[in-house]
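Bumping with the actual sequence this time:
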Amino acid sequence: MEESFLESFGRLSLQQPQPRPPAPPPPRGTPPRRHSFRKHLYLLRGLPGSGKTTLARQLQHDFPRALIFSTDDFFFREDGAYEFNPDFLEEAHEWNQKRARKAMRNGISPIIIDNTNLHAWEMKPYAVMVYQTEQKNLFRLEMDMIVFRPEMKKHSWSPKRKNTPNERTV
């Protein structure tokens, strides 16, 4: 990335650019194009142990500004030990959603939600956050869902499911 960034500077010129003829008007009925800064929210979805956290860490390595939000973090004690308590699961989800919402409002990108997200109710609050953020015109946020599924076995009777446009199977 640094090399391409430096190459971009090598192509800069101190000469004034030649004026271009005005662009033709857009075809009738086409909305005007607005410049937007695209931010990304990645919803990782899969069974425990399927590799979501490993992928989240790789994404953070590739994009150092990325923040990972996992409900599991709520259950880590100060000494680093993990102690899950199902009585606090609802509170843990609310805590994680609050952290993600704050990051969205602060313009952080990418944001990685590292939860099982097996049920719609687990994903819905994040989708609502995306919608609310866009309505306030803070920035354009794209949401990708990355789905982890075990390999289909030959003797499996389950039909293969096609991904929706914003889903990727890993």
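The tokens above came from a reply further down the thread. The longest helix spans residues 89-105.
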